[in-house]
Structure formats: C-alpha cells, structure tokens
Amino acid sequence: MADLLIVDDDPDFADSLRETLEGLGHAVAVEHRGEDGLARLGAQRFELVFLDHRMPGMDGLQTLAAMKATVPRLPPVVVLTAHAGSAGTIEAMRLGAFDHLTKPVSRDGVIEVVRRALAASAPPPAAPVRAPAPDDGEMIGISDAMREVHKRIGLAVGSRAPVLVVGETGTGKELVARALHRHSDRAARPFVAVNCAAIPRELLESELFGHVKGAFTGAVADRPGCFKAADGGVLLLDEIGDMALDVQAKLLRVLQEGEVTPVGSHRPQKVDVRVVAATHRDLAQAVAEGRFREDLRYRLDVLAIHLPPLRERLADIVPLAEHFLRLAAAPGPAKRLSPEAAAALLAHRWPGNVRELRNAMERCQALQRGAVIHQLDLADASPATGRAASDALPADWYAGTLPEAIDRLEKLLLRHALAEAGGNRSLAARQLGIHRQLLYAKLTQHGLD
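== Sigma-54-dependent Fis family transcriptional regulator ==
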C-alpha cells in the first residue's frame, strides 16, 4: 500500500480516481486546488501524485514547478489533462513529470502508471521555469504513438546531445526539430534548417562550414556558413542520409571538436550548436552498403525520435484534417467534415503522410463551395481519398474478424469525440449522435472510463 495524492478541480473525476486507487489498496488524499495540493505535499509524505493540468488559480504546470522548487524529495508526478496537445505534454515532461496522460484514464491505464511510478525513483530536478511557448506550429496528435513522441521531445530538450529524427517523408520531422528548439534554453537563439539533399555536394561543405574569400571561383567574400549562423541555437540537418561521405567526415569532426574550419582556411572557429539530424532512410542499411559512416551514425544517434507514418496514427487523422481546415480558412470560418468524409480519410493509406493530408484539406477549403465537405468532394482534392478504398485500412485490420475491426474503429471515434469535447461526456455524446447512457456503456466496454 502507498500514500497517494490527487490534485484535481473536477470532484467527479477525483472521486472516481480515488475509488479506483483505493480499490487497488492504496491510501488516497484529495485536494481540488493547486495551492492546496502544494501545501498538502509539503506537510505530508506521498509516494505518487496525480496532478490535473488545467485548474483555476495555480494550474498544473505552475503547481508542478512550485513542487519542484519547494519539496526536497518530490515523488513521481503524473500530469492529467482533458486537452491533449504537444505543448502541454512537452512542457510537463520538461518540468520533470513522470508521465502525462489524457482523461479519461482507463482502470488498466491507472494500474500500469501506478506500477511504473512506484517502481521508479523520483525524477531529477527540472530546469528553471519558463512560460510555455505558444502553440504556433504545435504538433497535433492525440494517438498513443504521437504522445510518446511528445514525451521523447520533452525528455530530450534538456540535453545538449545530438538528436536523430527518423520518419517517412511528410511525417513532420522539421516540426520535431522546431519543438526541440522552442522548448529548450536555446529558444531565444537561432534555428537554422538546411536540406542536405537539395544542395549539390560540391557546395554543401561551403554551405555548412562557410568559406573565405578566394577559396574557389566565385568566392568573392567571406561567408560564415550554417554552423556559424546557428551559433548558440539549433541546426537541423534534414535528409542527412543523402550527405556525401567526404562532408560526413568533416561533420563528424565538428560534432567531436565543437569547431568548424571554413573552406579555404586553416583556422578553426569554435561553435556552440545543438544538431538535430533528420532522415527517411535506414542509416544502418546505408552503413552496411558503404553510403554512410558508421562512426557518424553512432555520434548522431544519441537521442533518437521515431516519427510514425500517418497510417499508424488513425486517431490523429481527423483532428489533423480539422486543424488544417482551420488554418486554411483563417481568419474566416472553416469547412466541416461529414461523417462519410471522415471515414474516407481514415480509410486512405496516406503515402505522403501529414503533408499529403494538409494539401488535400487546403484544396478542399479552397475549392468546395458548401460549408460541409462530403466524401465525393474529397475526389477533387485527392482521388484516392474520394473513393471507398476497400484495401486502404491498416494491414493488421484484415487479420481479424469484422466485429473486431468495427470495435477498433468505434474506440477511435470515442477517443476523438472525447478529445474534441475536452473530456465533456455530454458534449461528446451529442457529437457522436448517441445518448449519454450509451456513451458511458461504450466507454466502459472499451476500457476508456
């Protein structure tokens, strides 16, 4: 048995969580304000804290920061939110949260996080508190896969080590790099991105490391290069798997020594740059084929973040589509997706990933006259999404029975409706067109209660 503390301004949710935890044999205290939770934690020893993100007065992140500053030995803190978003998840993990979960949390989810938290030691001290960055360029995603990405970013922002972002084309690798920059202590310094595949190999060295006047034909003046331009900040080396071997050797030296030597010069210059490398290629295979240096791969692959393809993030497709429609319509009203159109989006394989989805929604917003986008309207934006793609579901869905596939789709729709309604079950039931009692039964059936 352990002593646990719940800090949540929603009495119904707090009571439900308390009953679940007491049913597991734990002693549970409940506070409904961040200030009261902070005082209770200072007066009594607890082994785990459940902390709501959004509360009146001192919110969850402010409370977590104050706990870090005032409690000598802080227990693991699990932050809960009904409004999943990358900025909140990243900031919570940066501040030292043990985990960040979206309401409603199933009983199995509670059991699992309690088991992990009680088995772990207290997290390390958090970095100094900063105001959360605005959600401009936020990584939209409520799926389990993307929430793991958000957590990895939050854990990586405090390090100075290189980060390797791996994912298919169009999955949003640059957004990961920008999030690492925005949430780190380098946020006020430059962010520089260079596409290694778009620059001819004979010019890439000069582009990265700079050159001095007269270094080659056309070098009429000194040029600092991307490393110097990013000094103190973050440099994204996109498509690094396409970098020439001779440039790879010089990049390795920069990473090891922290200094660059411009083309045509023999005088190294110190630089302080956090390098984020991104690629859609399998670097291990490239090493085996002699196209990529093994030592550089190991130097870059200190902290790896794997971005899943959109076809493995079904819970994110409709929220992303709605987000892109709002962006395309701003400052005017956005068009809405009909249920049939949403189902067609879920059925499509999205080989171009998030980039393809964004392009399709921008075309729909621009070309469709009505306020609602129907399935047939999608054919104008992307013919493959407009037709009923009987072979477009994830391959593993075909391995089971029809009831199993329907069960999986129903669970995705329930999670999306709850996320859109901010955890308000009555509103979620109205959005789904079902009675609230049926919603409660479905949530219990799928372990989402």
